[in-house]
Design brief:
This protein folds into two domains: 206 residues, Ribosomal Protein S5, domain 2; 167 residues, 2-Layer Sandwich (Alpha-Beta Plaits), CATH 3.30.70.890. Helix content is 41%, strand content 22%. The strands form two sheets. Strands 1, 2, 3, 4, 5, 6, 7 and 12 form an eight-stranded mixed sheet that branches. It has a four-stranded antiparallel sheet with strand order 9-10-8-11. A hairpin with a 7-residue loop joins strand 9 and strand 10. The termini are close together. The structure holds alpha-D-galactopyranose.
Length: 386
């Protein structure tokens, strides 16, 4: 039990609540290798759980209150389970409250047992690495067990999404929670967001002499702002205009028809999702057949599509991607919801320092905030620690 964040979580719980936790559960953040804004279109995604985790120490209370405290904010929050609703006053506690609401709802029985929860995390916040899904999955797993709610991992992923949609108020898909729950060491999760069938696919980065760098631009993205919801609405109206239940049901062959019917903006949104779905399938096939050194062009094609068609990139992300590629990265793209957050750069080990130093220098020259650059690897999904 040497993990410092785990130890800090237990210490934080004891200090806050003056007693021992009943257990500690953890869940990782995730990075998406490819497949962006395809999840809520019932398409394909290919993320992996990363070696940065959120820990939740939990103990039952005598009443029906959910109490939340954390190492990253002095504020504490509490609410009666039956009273959980969308409210700005919830602050970041909307994530644990949301998942408590959703686990109770999906369990099909009224839950009245309250809990004290203390959270600590080394997942960077606002970087597009799903610090929020990590909270939801760690707390969701804990409550599922302590309430005896009987949800399996698919249902827990849905609980995270439901809490985020209804209590946080962000119309997000199911990718982040699935990656956090189904992640495996050295594997990414190829998820069909319609059937929720999740397949672990070996990445083989280390054997190929590669590392995945995260370039966190420090431009915080927020999924409750209008851009994400506007993209989702455009996808839904595009699908409807083309007579499809969702964009998942369309292929590149439908694009000619789309060009005739759709307005230029909706056409671009639809084209991103249709081509991105093909890129995810091609990435998985290429990875299996030829290994990770062969997927670079697909990563960059995804970035171009997000920049030009989905229009969710920003100058800092474009600079990170172009600079990394110029200095030896095999492939690079922005990752996550967009409008800020991080880019990824799949980089040969011998090029890591050149890519890192060049991106830092370029950001400084352009007067951007200093980015944070670090490697991540594919780690196991959510689990009980103690
Ligand atoms: C955010 C959402 C996900 C997904 C991505 C974009 O991370 O939470 O559901 O839509 O954006 O791919």
């Amino acid at each position: 039990m040497t993990n410092p964040t785990l130890l800090a979580t237990i210490a934080g719980f004891k200090q806050e609540y003056d007693r021992e936790p009943a257990g500690v559960w953890s869940a990782p953040g995730r990075v998406n290798l490819i497949g962006e804004h395809t999840d809520y279109n019932e398409g394909f995604v290919f993320p992996f759980a990363i070696n940065r985790r959120t820990y939740a120490a939990v103990a039952p209370r005598q009443d029906n209150m959910i109490c939340v405290a954390s190492s990253f904010s002095k504020e504490t929050f509490q609410i009666a389970i039956s009273d959980i609703h969308q409210d700005e006053k919830n602050g970041w506690a909307a994530y644990p409250f949301g998942v408590a609401y959703a686990v109770a709802k999906l369990s099909g029985k009224p839950q009245t047992q309250g809990f004290d929860i203390f959270i600590d995390s080394d997942v960077p916040v606002g970087a597009g690495l799903s610090s929020s899904a990590a909270i939801e999955c760690a707390v969701g797993l804990a409550l599922n067990e302590l309430w005896n709610a009987g949800l399996d991992k698919k249902a827990l992923a849905k609980a995270g999404q439901l809490g985020e949609n209804e209590i946080v108020g962000a119309p997000t898909g199911i990718m982040d929670q699935t990656a956090s729950l189904f992640g495996e060491l050295d594997h990414a999760v190829f998820l069909d967001c319609r059937s929720l069938e999740a397949k672990a696919i070996e990445l083989g980065f280390a054997d190929a002499g590669l590392e995945l760098l995260i370039i966190d631009t420090k431009v915080a993205h927020r999924l409750v702002d209008g851009g994400y919801a506007a993209r989702r609405a455009a996808c839904e109206s595009g699908a409807e205009a083309l007579g499809a239940a969702s964009l998942r049901d369309l292929s590149q062959a439908d694009l000619t028809r789309a060009e005739e019917i759709l307005d230029p903006v909706t056409l671009r949104r639809v084209r991103h999702v249709i081509t991105e779905n093909s890129r995810v399938e091609e990435t998985v096939a290429t990875l299996k057949a030829k290994g990770p050194r062969a997927i670079g062009e697909l990563l960059y094609a995804s970035h171009e599509s997000m920049r030009d068609d989905f229009e969710i990139s920003i100058d800092e992300l474009d600079t990170a991607v172009e600079t990394a590629l110029r200095h030896g990265a095999i492939g690079a793209r922005m990752t996550g919801g967009g409008f800020g957050g991080a880019a990824i750069a799949l980089t040969p080990i011998e090029k890591i320092s050149e890519v890192t130093l060049s991106v830092l220098a370029e950001f400084e020259a352009l007067g951007y905030a200093k980015p944070e650059i670090f490697a991540v690897s594919a780690a196991p999904g959510a689990k009980r620690e103690l």
